[in-house]
Amino acid sequence: MEVEKFNHYEVESVTSKRHSIGEMLAAMQPQDGDDEQKFGPPVDFSFRDAHKMSDFTKATPRQGVHSYVTIPVTLPSIEPASSATPSGEKEQVADDDTKTKHVKYSSKAIRFSNNSISSFDGFATTLHAILQSTETLEWLDLSFNDLTKISEAILELSNLKVLYLHANVIDDMKQVDKLAGLPNLKTLTLHGNIIDGAKGYRQYVVTEIPQLQYFDFSRITKADRDKAVTWRQLKIIGHHKKKKKAEKKD
């Protein structure tokens, strides 16, 4: 496939209409040698009535007090437009008329809260389509959605520091284990999920994600960590006792 350059991006030209705009935008990557990157406020896609991740690529973010920092990108048209001349011959329309203009946002934070997202399907593609760079993303808000699981796709966000997942419907504590793979994660929220009613909820999270400093908008203290260690030891002892009882029955 031929590679064409448009503004600050490179994109492989496609000939199939099956490629969505979001997929095409996600394929665009900044070229080396761009000016020093400037970051704007959080890109706010809250209350967009989105039901799946790809819906955000078609939505316009909410405007706040501060203006977004945007980078214009131009998508090549699938088929060049043409018009008939008086003699009946087809004439190619100027290139500027056959390209669709879009923007990517330069920000370290993005908000997908207060929607109806139930799956992480298309998560990575959506982020790449919206943001100039996902490598610099530090703050992600997915609160007040319908998520039941935590996707390992989040682990690609190696610089993520803040993750809001409160007010979803996560019902399996083991889902939390995946977040231990985010080395820079300092703040996490999970309250309002089904799991927050589980016995040892806070101790489990503090134990499984030791790099956390704040959990559910509360600072993790030394007492919290000591309590989590004790809780874990008791769980291990309890597990061994159950195992021995099971072996005796056999």
Helix and strand topology:
Elements: E1 3-6, E2 9-12, H1 21-27, E3 29-30, E4 43-44, E5 70-76, E6 82-84, E7 90-92, E8 99-105, E9 109-111, H2 123-130, E10 139-141, E11 162-164, E12 187-189, H3 201-208, E13 214-215, E14 218-219, H4 222-249
Parallel strand pairs: 4-9, 9-10, 10-11, 11-12, 12-13
Antiparallel strand pairs: 1-2, 2-3, 5-8, 6-7, 13-14
What descriptors fit this protein?
single chain; alpha/beta; seven-stranded mixed β-sheet; three-stranded antiparallel β-sheet; 19% strand; elongated
In short:
This protein has 250 residues and is an alpha/beta fold.
Tell me about this structure:
This protein is an alpha/beta fold. 20% of the residues lie in helices and 19% in strands. It has a 7-stranded mixed sheet with strand order 4-9-10-11-12-13-14, with helices on one face. A 3-stranded antiparallel sheet has the order 1-2-3, covered by helices on one side. A hairpin with a 5-residue loop joins strand 6 and strand 7. Helix 1 crosses helix 2 and helix 3 packs across helix 4 (222-249). The longest helix has 28 residues, at 222-249. InterPro entries: Leu-rich_rpt, LRR_dom_sf. It is found in: Cytoplasm. This is Leucine-rich repeat-containing protein 51.
